[in-house]
Amino acid sequence: MKVVIIDDERLARQELRSMLGQFPGIEILADCGDTKSALEAVQTLKPDVAFLDIQMPGKTGFELLDEFVHMPQIVFVTAHDEYAIRAFDVNALDYLLKPVQPDRLADTVRKLRDRMQESAQQTERSDALGESDQVFVKDGERCWFVKLSDVRLFESEGNYVRLYFGTNKPLILRSLNYLDERLSPKVFFRASRKHIINLNWVEKIESWFNGGLLVKLRGGEQVEISRRQAVKLKELMSL
User: Fold this and answer.
1) Final residue belonging to a domain, choices 97, 125, 153
2) For the chain, how long is the longest CA-to-CA vector?
3) What is the extent of the structural domain holding 179?
4) Alpha-carbon gap, residue 202 to 218, rounded angstroms
5) How many C-alpha atoms does 150 have within 13 Å on its Cβ side?
6) Who has greater pLDDT, 22 or 125?
7) Same domain, 106 and 143
């Protein structure tokens, strides 16, 4: 398990590095004291997990997440408990309060290993799902057998993902990271930490704030794309 630690407090980084070092199979690729070096580390080293502080100079941990192209599993490590709900809204795997307790960290490591094993098993069992594939969707008492070419948008809502097809918007108990691993990148683009869009449903693309893009889908939905993801989208859709 490859890990990056992001925290502006040097002692906090050292303590977490020491605690993680007690778990076999964990490789700490970098510990970063500012958001600029953190962004570079995540994008170049592509860790499996980022242990991320929330309150840092320049940017918050949430703002830093918006700039990630490679998206590792996220574990927030903070002295403040008021961000817990928002942390799980962005699909963080766990939320640790400082000072980090050894038993809580052990629980987090177990969750990480379970999640990585699940992802590996899913990858082994099946190839990427393309637009011609059909999937079974169940939301409460309602069920659909949906062709993926008809799904224009996947939107994260906590531990669930909302699918947009036709006039239907069911919720499924999956993470957006899981779907990102299963869906073909040739058709389905990770627009942000909260959205995956079907490129065949893109109606219009406009310039947006800070070098980003605003994508309008034929179903009427609008999705903001960060500057870094905008660069990736332009490369994907260019000759």
Assistant:
1) 125
2) 53
3) 134-237
4) 6
5) 13
6) 22
7) no
Last residue of a domain, one of 66, 94, 125: 125
Q: What's the CATH number where 22 sits?
A: 3.40.50.2300
Q: What is the pLDDT of residues 181-215, one digit of tens each?
A: 889 888 999 998 899 999 999 999 998 887 789 99
User: What's the confidence (pLDDT) of residue 122?
Assistant: 57
78-83: long-range contacts, CB 8 A cutoff, minimum separation 24: 78/53, 78/54, 79/55, 80/54, 80/55, 83/54
**Mean pLDDT rounded to a whole number for the chain:** 89
| Rounded-to-integer distance, Cα 43 and Cα 216, Å | 27
pLDDT score at 123: 54
- How far apart are alpha carbons 143 and 54 in whole angstroms? 39
Domain count across the chain: 2
| CB-CB contact of 198 with 149 (8 Å) | yes
Q: What is the pLDDT of residue 2?
A: 96
Q: Which residues contact 62 (CB under 8 A, 6 or more apart)?
A: 54, 83, 86, 90
Phi, psi of 81 (to 5 degrees): -95, -5
How would residue 88 be classed by pLDDT, with cut points 50, 70 and 90?
Answer: confident
